[in-house]
Amino acid sequence: MHTPPTRRRDATSGRLHRSLIRRGSTKGQSVVEFALVLPLMMLILLAIIDFGRVYTTMMTVESAAREGADFGTTLGAAHWDATTKDITVAEMERRSCIAASNLPDYVGDDPSGTVVTCTNPGFAYCLTTATGGPCDPFDEFAGCQDPLRAPPCLVTVTLTYDFHLFAPVIGLPTTLTFDRDSTFAMTDIDLAPPP
């Protein structure tokens, strides 16, 4: 008589059953580990994205400050007498705001208008009339309107920008405020040299 090998099948099926149970628990462990690590990985990814955004924003704000200072100094003597100073400052601000208008947190007038002002970034300017001297508002008696003045006056434009982070970290601020400035010496390139 032949007896079927039931024990053998039972032993094999038992091992197979235990193996399947072990694999299922390993898969569950991986899901739990992934669920624990995913928020940290997302926070790191958002921090990397924010770092890139901060860097490019700072470069844009600095470029906008350079745009305003450049206007205030090119053919500078004509821009800085008592009758044209207000027009010059308004145009410096307009150019700075237009250059910064593509920033994510820009607050200001529509850049296509004729008068453009902005509050984020905030605009400020000052003039330095002597080497190493203070940077002050316009002084009509400083002689900045003289194209042959030596040393030339310096125009500094400062933009203050409030940047909002994607991924604020607990204990750190959600908004970064930074100032970028640009200083140019006044030039009158189109003047003929003195005889």
What does this structure look like?
The termini are far apart. Strands 4-3-5-6 form a four-stranded antiparallel sheet. Helices cover 45% and strands 18% of the residues. Strand 3 (122-128) and strand 4 form a beta hairpin. It is α+β, with helices and mostly antiparallel strands and 195 residues long. It has one domain. Helix 1 runs antiparallel to helix 3.
Pattern of helices and strands: HHHEEEEEE
Number of helices: 3
Q: What is the topology, as strand order, of the major beta sheet?
A: 4-3-5-6
Our measurement of the CA-to-CA distance between the termini, rounded to an integer number of angstroms, reads 131 Å
Q: Specify the biggest β-sheet.
A: 4 strands, antiparallel
Tell me the structural class: alpha+beta
Give the domain tally: 1
- What is the arithmetic mean of pLDDT? 82
Number of strands: 6
Summarize the amount of helix as a percent range: 40-55%
Low-pLDDT segments: none
> If you compute it from the alpha carbons, what radius of gyration comes out, rounded to the nearest whole angstrom?
33 Å
Overall geometric form: elongated
Taken as a percent bin, the fraction of beta residues is 15-25%
Short overview:
With 195 residues, the protein is of the alpha+beta class.
Kindly list the characteristics that best describe this protein:
6 strands, 195 residues, alpha+beta, two-stranded antiparallel sheet
Write the layout of secondary structure elements.
Blueprint: H1 6-73, H2 76-79, H3 85-100, E1 107-108, E2 118-120, E3 122-128, E4 135-136, E5 154-164, E6 175-185
Antiparallel strand pairs: 1-2, 3-4, 3-5, 5-6
Helix pairs in contact: 1-3
